Amino acid sequence: MTEPSPRRLYMDNAATSFPKPASVLSAMMRYATELGASPGRGAYAEAVESAAILTDCRRRLNQLFNGQRPEHFIFTLNCSDALNLAIKGLIDPALSSSKGSIQHAICSHIDHNSILRPLHAMAERGWIAHTRVPVHPSTGLIDPDEIRRAIRPNTKLIAVTHASNVTGTVQPLREIGRMAREHDIPMVVDAAQSAGHVPIDVQADFIDLLAAPGHKGLLGPSGTGFLYVRPGIERILRPLKEGGTGSVSEQPVQPEFLPDKYEPGSHNAIGIAGLAEGVKWVAEQTVEKLYEHDRDLVRTFIDGASDVAGLRYHGPQGVRDRIGVFSVQIDGYDAHELAVILETTYGILTRPGIHCAPLAHAALGTADCGGTTRFSFGPFLSKQDVKYATDALASIATSLSRTRPRHVTLQ
Could you give the CA distance from residue 306 to residue 337 in angstroms, rounded to a whole number? Predict the structure, then answer.
């Protein structure tokens, strides 16, 4: 019987990043033990400092993504929450009261359910029609001309997944954004897999609404995220919630100024304290250097996984147009079985399944077989770690016995 590997090698950073920088944990501990106050809900020193943490985090996000105003970074529960605000906030159900005025949205087959499901729900209610443009079956890339052809006079938004959580494909965001701006259509960007991994400039990339989680590439805790709202877009973006803001409390309506217009209720201050430090860590390393490190890991994975009989990975087959997210298959193994062997025999932690992106797997032809086994990299992994993983995959793929995969040497 094979002994379990003593090593625990985390390769599920597309779900949530781990480990976190020590400064993230220290900031959260300090908030919990020394502050504890609700931002904007008191005049005493602890409440004032808690509010300053939020302000500082917005400032750091604004610098990292080259935003125009820090107050236009709206804190949300996660990326899905941010995308719901962006997508549903741009659609006015009152305008769809008659079939002749139904609104239109554009997305793609590579998108995560955080885009697909809000659009589907509104289509079910008769509020919108939406077009899902195809992607290239092998690379997962969107042809911008497909989006151009899908535009209608009543198109209210174009939703783009910047980097796929299935194939690692990075879309030509600036080209799509320029086209959307030319047609005066807001572009909503899902940066769940790209924020902190790939350089993003909301001004140069023509991004109107940028949604991202705090707990992935920005290295913050779960339960944090943001939506950047380009100045001027707040005039057409409806708030989805109302409630206490600690400002203009005497009035019965939600404030019109940002960020309060979209932030009712008490904030996840302890989480934002951690997120602020995660963003600071990323900024100090620079996204450009983190991106180059990721590319080194991608090269190492491709070198080790290529030309192994029975092993294949989906998405771009080279370093270009991709990040360190690899969905793999090995002949004779289903996705969950492969993930179990990787953990129990080699100590490698991956994620099997459909990855909340059913249309992406349908486009790859992997939906009916239970999906793929996904490896996803983070800044604390080394090339030696990735080499160990590809050696493990090669060992499994070339093993004569499925029940007794060969060990690789721990490095």
Answer: 21
